[in-house]
Amino acid sequence: MTEDEKKEFEEFLEWKAEKKRKEEENKAKQEEEERQVKANNQMPQVEDEKRMEFDNGQVPYSSNINDNKSNNPDGGTTSFPCAFVLLFSVIIFLFCICLLRDCSDNYKTTSNNTESTSNSEIDKDDSLATIAAAEKKSQDSLKRAKRIDLLKNTIKIKKAYLSSPNSAGGVDAHLVWKNVSNKTIKYLNWSGYPINAVGDPVSCEARGTIEGGGKVTGPIKPGATYGYGTYWDCLWYNYSAKKLVLTDIYIEYMDGSSIHINSNELKYVR
I need a labelling partner for 68 at 20 to 30 A (CA). Which of 55, 102, 223, 252 fits? Predict the structure, then answer.
């Protein structure tokens, strides 16, 4: 390459570099102008919005920093609902505990009252039962006393015995008694059995029976005694018969009334 050509090529490179620099400057200048135009267009709009907010009585946001702080999870404003929810949960929990405790106390009180009422009712029932039993016992005692008094005013047995056995072993029964009532006796029936020397019952060897008895036909007036010179001949046949044991007496009066004296009551007419 000649000197002229080399020089011409260098000039071409310088012209190309200068052209590129001018194009970049023009482009940067144009971008700056576009930013200024855009900024100028936005400023009236922002001012209009702020003016509208003041006209409506609203307070505009002071800065983006406050907005970021209010939306920040670490800020105090955002943590307030969490603390409130936690406090409300604790209050509800404590309220439930108090409610359960009151229910438990009421249940215990009700149980104690129910138990006390039940015990009172049981004690009352026991007292009533005791009173009823005492009244019944008293009535039975009174009834028994009246019965004994009645028995003592019927007859009075003076003697009841057997004669010595005859040659055939027959024994006679003797019963001596007095009418101590104020009524005339129409009939008197008695029953009994013989016993040997050791107290065992003995039977009639002729009839095969143990118990026997006799009948008295009145009238037997009040205060009269019956039985002397009267007996029941050979009522039993047994050489071992020694004593007469009475089992019951039945008395019928002239007025139609009657009374039965059983074995346990005979002691009151002796």
Answer: 55
Residue 50: other Cβ atoms inside 10 A:
12
User: What pLDDT score was predicted for residue 75?
Assistant: 45
pLDDT at 67: 47
**Could you tell me the end-to-end alpha-carbon distance of the chain, in angstroms, rounded to an integer?**
185
- The phi, psi pair for 91, rounded to 5°, reads -65, -45
Architecture of domain 155-269: Sandwich (2.60)
> What residues does each domain of the chain span?
155-269
Distance between CA atoms of residues 166 and 175, nearest Å: 19
CA–CA separation, 135 vs 122, rounded Å? 19
Q: Which residues contact 160 (CB under 8 A, 6 or more apart)?
A: 174, 175, 176, 192, 244, 246
| Category of 114 on φ-ψ map: left (φ > 0), alpha (ψ -120 to 50) or beta | alpha
Cα–Cα distance measured from residue 145 to residue 16, given in angstroms and rounded to the nearest whole number: 159
pLDDT at 163: 95
**Measured distance CA(239)–CA(194) in Å, rounded:** 11
DSSP state, 268? Answer: G
* pLDDT given at position 1: 62
Kindly list the averaged pLDDT for each block of 10 residues, start to end, along the chain of length 270.
71 78 84 80 58 51 44 48 76 81 70 70 81 89 93 96 95 97 97 96 94 96 94 96 97 97 95
Which phi and psi (to 5°) does residue 259 adopt? -150, 140
Structure tokens at 222: 């009040």
